[in-house]
C-alpha cells in the first residue's frame, strides 16, 4: 500500500553526481535513446505491475516509481499471516525487469501535469554523509535517488496506479495499535504477534484472565480480507495451536466486528448468511452493527460493548484515498471516494471535462466515470492488461480506440476447514454461486492460476502440500 504519496518501485544503480550546494531538485532521465518516449508508472500493485510485465520495453523508456520493490499478491496474505504459506509465495520482485526498466523505490509527492514532471522522495534511508552537510546548505531538494532527498522525473506518458490506504475512519489509536493486512510486511508482523501472544500466555506467572485477554483476537471489518483472515486463524487454532498449546487453545477466541448488519456485503446475501452460520458453528463470534470508538494499547472501546481487551487487533475496513490523489486538484474526482475519474479509455479527466491523452489512472486510485466497478485486484489487473496493450499499440502508431470492458470472473472468499464461497451471480453471463468444498477447490485453483511467476507456481502448491503433511511452522524469527 502506499504512503501519503505516489511511488514507483526499484532504484537502478547510477553513478552519484557531485553533491550540489544549490537548493533545487535535480531532474533525472534514463540514458535510453531519445527516440524512445518516457513512460512512468506510479505504483507496483495489481495494475502497475501488470503494465510493467507486459509493456514493450524495447520501444518504451520505462520507469517505475514505488515505495516497495515488490508486487504483493494480496489474496494470499491471510495465508502467509498464519504460516499456511511462506512470505515469498506472496511477492514478486520488481527488480527482475531491470535493467530494461528503471525502477526507483520512492514516493511520488506531486505531479505537474503542465510541465510533465514528478517530484519524488526516496523511500530508502538517507545516506550518512547528508547529516554532515555544511552550514547554510539546504539538502532537502538537492540530491540523487536513494539519498533521502527529493528528486524530479520527467515523463511523456504517465500511468497513475498508486492504490489506496487502509480506511481508519479517524478512529483514535488505530494506526498506533492495530495491524493492517495490505502487504507482506503486515503479514509478517501479524504472524509474529500471534506467536508472541501464545508464548506470553504460556508463562506461568500469568492468571487465566490475563491469558484470555492475550488470546482474544479481534478483527474489525467484515469484508473478504477480514473474513479470510478469521478463517485462516481459526484453522491455525484448531490444528497446530490445539496440538502444541492444548490448554491455551481452549482459551483463545476470535471475534469479527463490523458496522454493517451482515458480513460480506458485496456477496450474494445467501452466501453471506452461509458464511455467518459456518463461523458461528466454528466458534467465531460475529459482532455486526458494532462501532469501535477508540483503540488503546491492548484494548479497544466499542460503543455497544464497552472495553474489549485483545492480544491482536487486525483492522480491515475498506479503502482511504492515497495522499497523492488527494493532492491533485486539476482533475475530476469522485465526491465520496476522492478517486480520479477516467473515461472509458482510462485517461484522466480534467476539471474542464477533457481527457488528458498522456495520463492514465487505474486500480483503486481511479474509477471510470458513469460506471461502478468493485475496488478489487481483479479490476485493477484487467485494467493493467488493457492499458499495456493500448500503450504497445500507441508506440507502434496503431489504432487503440477500443474502450475498456470489465469481465466479471466472480468473487471468492475462504471460510476455513477447506470450505469457501464463490459468487458470480452479478456477472453478465454464466451466473452461478458455489459453497463448501467445491468453492474451496475453485478458490485454490483460481489463485494458483493467478500467480504470476513460474517460481511461485511451484512454491504455492508445494507449501500447500508441505502444510498438509507437516503442519504450519510456529517458529518465531
For the CA atoms, what is the radius of gyration? Answer: 24 Å
Strand content: 15-25%
State the distance separating the first and last CA atoms.
24 Å
The main pleated sheet reads as:
6 strands, mixed
Spatial order of the strands forming the largest sheet: 7-4-3-11-23-22
**Overall residue-averaged pLDDT value:** 88
Question: What class would the helix/strand composition place it in?
Answer: alpha/beta
How would the global form be characterised? globular
Low-confidence stretches: 1-25, 129-146
Oligomer: single chain
What topology does this entry show?
Elements: E1 6-8, E2 27-28, E3 37-42, H1 46-54, E4 60-65, E5 70-72, H2 77-82, E6 91-93, E7 101-104, E8 106-112, E9 117-122, E10 151-154, E11 157-160, E12 165-166, H3 174-177, H4 184-201, H5 208-214, E13 216-220, H6 224-244, H7 246-249, E14 253-258, H8 269-281, E15 285-288, E16 292-296, E17 299-302, E18 306-309, E19 312-315, E20 319-320, H9 323-327, E21 340-342, E22 347-349, E23 355-361, E24 366-368, H10 377-394, E25 411-416, E26 419-423, E27 433-435, H11 436-450, H12 454-470
Parallel strand pairs: 2-10, 3-4, 3-11, 4-7, 11-23, 13-14, 13-19, 14-15, 21-24
Antiparallel strand pairs: 1-8, 5-6, 8-9, 9-10, 12-20, 16-17, 17-18, 22-23, 25-26, 26-27
Amino acid at each position: 500500500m502506499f504512503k501519503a504519496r505516489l511511488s514507483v518501485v526499484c532504484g537502478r544503480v547510477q553513478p552519484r553526481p557531485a553533491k550540489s550546494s544549490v537548493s533545487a531538485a535535480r531532474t533525472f532521465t534514463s540514458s535510453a535513446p531519445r527516440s524512445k518516449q518516457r513512460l512512468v508508472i506510479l505504483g507496483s500493485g495489481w495494475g502497475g505491475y501488470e503494465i510493467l510485465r507486459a509493456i514493450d520495453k524495447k520501444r518504451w523508456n520505462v520507469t517505475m516509481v514505488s515505495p516497495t520493490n515488490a508486487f504483493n499478491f494480496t489474496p494470499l496474505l491471510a495465508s502467509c499471516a498464519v504460516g499456511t504459506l511462506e512470505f515469498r509465495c506472496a511477492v514478486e520482485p520488481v527488480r527482475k525487469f531491470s535493467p530494461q526498466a528503471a525502477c526507483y523505490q520512492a514516493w511520488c509527492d506531486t505531479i505537474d501535469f503542465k510541465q510533465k514532471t514528478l517530484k519524488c522522495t526516496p523511500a530508502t534511508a538517507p545516506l550518512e554523509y547528508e547529516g554532515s552537510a555544511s552550514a547554510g546548505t539546504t539538502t532537502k531538494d538537492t540530491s540523487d535517488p536513494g539519498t533521502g532527498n527529493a528528486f524530479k522525473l520527467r515523463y511523456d506518458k504517465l500511468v497513475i496506479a498508486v492504490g489506496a490506504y487502509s480506511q481508519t475512519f479517524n478512529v483514535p489509536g488505530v494506526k498506533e495499535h492495530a495491524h493492517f493486512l495490505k502487504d507482506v510486511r503486515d503479514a509478517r508482523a501479524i504472524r509474529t504477534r500471534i506467536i508472541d501472544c501464545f508464548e506470553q500466555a504460556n508463562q506461568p506467572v500469568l492468571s487465566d484472565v490475563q491469558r484470555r485477554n492475550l488470546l482474544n483476537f479481534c478483527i474489525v471489518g467484515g469484508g473478504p480480507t477480514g473474513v479470510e483472515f478469521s478463517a485462516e486463524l481459526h484453522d491455525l487454532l484448531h490444528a497446530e495451536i490445539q496440538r502444541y498449546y492444548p490448554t491455551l487453545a481452549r482459551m483463545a477466541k476470535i471475534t469479527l466486528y463490523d458496522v454493517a448488519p451482515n458480513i460480506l456485503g458485496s456477496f450474494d446475501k445467501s452466501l453471506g448468511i452461509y458464511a455467518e452460520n459456518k463461523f458461528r458453528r466454528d466458534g467465531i463470534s460475529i459482532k455486526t452493527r458494532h462501532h469501535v470508538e477508540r483503540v488503546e494499547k491492548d484494548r479497544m472501546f466499542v460503543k455497544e460493548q464497552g472495553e474489549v481487551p485483545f492480544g491482536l487487533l487486525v483492522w480491515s475496513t475498506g479503502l482511504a484515498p492515497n495522499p497523492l490523489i488527494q493532492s491533485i486538484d486539476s482533475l475530476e474526482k469522485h465526491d465520496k471516494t476522492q478517486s480520479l475519474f477516467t473515461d472509458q479509455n482510462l485517461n484522466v479527466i480534467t476539471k474542464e471535462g477533457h481527457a488528458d491523452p498522456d495520463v492514465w489512472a487505474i486500480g483503486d486510485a481511479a474509477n471510470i466515470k458513469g460506471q461502478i466497478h468493485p475496488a478489487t485486484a481483479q479490476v485493477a489487473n484487467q485494467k493493467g492488461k488493457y492499458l499495456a496493450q493500448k500503450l504497445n499499440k500507441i508506440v507502434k502508431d496503431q489504432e487503440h480506440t477500443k474502450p475498456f470492458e470489465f469481465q466479471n470472473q466472480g468473487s471468492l472468499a475462504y471460510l476455513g476447514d477447506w470450505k469457501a464461497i464463490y459468487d458470480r451471480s452479478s456477472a453478465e453471463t454464466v451466473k452461478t454461486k458455489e459453497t463448501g468444498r467445491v468453492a474451496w477447490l475453485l478458490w485454490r485453483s483460481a489463485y494458483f492460476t493467478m500467480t504470476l511467476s513460474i517460481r511461485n507456481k511451484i512454491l504455492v502448491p508445494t507449501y500447500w502440500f508441505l502444510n498438509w503433511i507437516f503442519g504450519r511452522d510456529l517458529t518465531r524469527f
